[in-house]
UniProtKB/TrEMBL annotation:
Gene3D superfamilies, per database record: Cobalt-precorrin-4 Transmethylase, Domain 1 (3.40.1010.10), Methyltransferase, Cobalt-precorrin-4 Transmethylase, Domain 2 (3.30.950.10)
A GO BP annotation: methylation
Protein name according to UniProt: Precorrin-6Y C5,15-methyltransferase (Decarboxylating)
Origin species: Asaccharospora irregularis DSM 2635
Top-rank lineage group of the source organism: Bacteria
Length: 202
């Protein structure tokens, strides 16, 4: 069986019990370095996922008799590895275990519901900001090319009244949540790994 397990936003206290049990019962653990390093005292073997996704998929598909767990940050079905693997592994061999997404986590921290939320990502693409900013409530996972400052500029260029929330290193000890107008966000020198919430001003 192949498990794809969401670890939650980072701090392992947010990993589900069912996910944790499956991880420690696995013979092989596959994941990015940060995630693999976070699983201590694992007795099986670990395979690091980097730019070797195709090879790892081949390994998984030819070792289906093994108990393999692929670990992913947040929820694997939200801009994670869940999509690729479920498109390329027979569903009868696959078990996906949700985790708490960084998106869910930030909304609980700012006491705002996620109803009617538009979820998007800037990873590896040029976002359609006209479309994105037409929504009242947006949450974006970002990369190092398009993050809080670039989003703020897009808002300023369109003369829109929006509040921005930047959640950095969520659930870790150095977690930081910044709330401000786009002009305030531009004044901040740099941001660590973050999700950005964009809200219509009331
Ligand atoms: C490939 S996406 C994975 C999203 C993940 N599946 C989820 O549900 O949170 C990676 C992006 O998620 C966001 N992210 C993940 N964990 C985070 C955390 N602890 N703090 C802030 N942002 C995080 C960042 O935007 C990061 O670039």
């Amino acid at each position: 069986m192949i498990n794809i397990i969401g670890l939650g936003p980072g701090n392992l206290d947010y990993t589900t019990k069912i996910g944790e049990n499956l991880i420690y019962k696995s013979e092989v653990l596959i994941g990015g370095k940060r995630n693999l390093d976070s699983i201590k005292n694992f007795r099986g073997s670990k395979i690091e996922l980097n730019s070797n996704l195709k090879e790892v998929l081949e390994y998984i598909n030819s070792n289906k008799e093994k108990q393999i767990s692929v670990i992913a940050s947040g929820d694997p079905s939200i801009y994670g590895i869940g999509r690729y693997l479920s498109q390329n592994i027979d569903k009868k061999d696959l078990n996906i275990v949700s985790g708490i997404s960084s998106l869910q986590y930030i909304f609980s921290k700012i006491y705002i519901d996620m109803n009617d939320l538009y979820i998007t990502s800037s990873h590896g693409k040029i976002p359609d900001f006209d479309y994105i900013l037409s929504h009242k409530k947006v949450c974006m996972v970002t990369d190092d090319k398009i993050g809080p400052k670039e989003i703020s500029l897009e808002i300023i260029n369109r003369n829109l009244n929006k509040t921005i929330v930047v959640g950095e290193n969520l659930s870790y000890l150095d977690e930081k949540i910044t709330v401000g107008r786009p002009e305030d966000i531009l004044k901040i020198e740099k941001f660590d790994m973050n999700v950005v919430v964009i809200l219509d001003e009331k």
